[in-house]
User: Which sequence fits this backbone?
């Protein structure tokens, strides 16, 4: 019998998502109903691994989470570590997990791991993966090798770093990947095996303002320029474009960006889902060489959605001028 007070302290909070969902009335589909304590009932072994401090912070589908809610979650998680938690676990919906994880990672200044997980199948479905993901998340949270790695996403016995992880499938159990990089670690029989030592991390202060808006548009075949031209008049303070291929747009979009890029930060990323944007390969109108000459920043390996998070936080901390350096990390 393990003496309870000798166990490490672990704080766990739930935000909602499929991991908190179960069926209500027949034919109505699953919806968030399980609070954090109820989720933990499915994983009794957690209480033998750690002293748990449990909180239910929201019951939202993750498409309805927002930056304000995530800043509140960050304040809670920080205070848990300051009060002695060895690590913090958050459960949330998988739909926006890749964005929420990167948002929190950019602001997470502790060595203590902040581990995020969820489920692809609800408590009402056969093969519900929530309990297994929660157990693996706790094993990762308590592993010494997880320290100094910022925010980690644990799904399907894999550990992904927040800057690289993406949801790559709508319903499959193996939905999460870090395209081009692979997972940082695997959980094998409860043991967390990292492939590499922790990398260099940079952290931002809390944003001083939160009313800024950053637009995300996708380049696509034969698209007109109406939405692109509306970005500045609508008051957006930054723009991310999910560009073709290695970070390209049409010649007509390039013409608009020539006037837009000097007035607000513009990032062009790749819409392909894997690989970096180019810097020095193509020279046509709308290519990366053309766009950089017009003041556009190329995203490198950062996917469009994470570019939007980065730019929102940089504007909120008045660090837009540091954008190029952050994209190079
Ligand atoms: N698709 C759901 C999930 O996997 C819903 C959500 O993200 O809240 O959690």
Assistant:
């Amino acid at each position: 019998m393990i003496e309870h007070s000798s166990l490490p302290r672990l704080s766990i909070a739930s935000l909602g998502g499929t991991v908190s969902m179960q069926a209500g009335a027949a034919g109505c589909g699953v919806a968030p109903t399980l609070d954090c304590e109820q989720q933990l009932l499915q994983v009794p072994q957690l209480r033998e691994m750690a002293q748990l401090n449990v909180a239910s912070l929201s019951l939202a589908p993750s498409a309805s989470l927002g930056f304000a809610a995530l800043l509140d979650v960050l304040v809670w998680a920080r205070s848990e570590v300051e009060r002695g938690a060895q690590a913090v676990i958050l459960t949330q919906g998988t739909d926006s997990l890749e964005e929420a994880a990167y948002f929190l990672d950019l602001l997470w200044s502790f060595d203590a791991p902040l581990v995020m997980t969820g489920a692809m199948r609800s408590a009402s479905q056969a093969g519900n993966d929530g309990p297994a993901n929660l157990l693996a998340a706790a094993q990762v949270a308590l592993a010494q090798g997880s320290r100094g790695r910022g925010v980690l996403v644990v799904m399907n016995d894999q550990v992904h770093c927040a800057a690289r992880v993406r949801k790559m499938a709508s319903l499959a159990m193996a939905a999460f990947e870090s395209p081009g990089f692979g997972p940082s670690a695997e959980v094998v029989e409860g043991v967390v095996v990292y492939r590499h030592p922790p990398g260099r991390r940079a952290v931002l202060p809390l944003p001083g303002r939160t009313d800024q808006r950053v637009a995300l548009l996708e380049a696509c075949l034969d698209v007109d320029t109406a939405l692109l031209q509306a970005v500045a008049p609508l008051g957006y303070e930054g723009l991310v474009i999910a560009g073709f291929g290695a970070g390209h747009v049409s010649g007509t979009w390039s013409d608009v960006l020539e006037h837009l890029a000097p007035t607000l930060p513009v990032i062009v990323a790749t819409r392909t889902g894997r690989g970096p944007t180019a810097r020095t390969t193509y020279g046509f109108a709308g290519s990366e060489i053309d766009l950089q000459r017009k003041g556009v920043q190329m995203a490198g390996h950062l996917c469009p959605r994470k570019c939007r998070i980065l730019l929102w936080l940089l504007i909120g901390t008045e660090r837009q001028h540091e954008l190029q350096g952050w994209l190079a990390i």
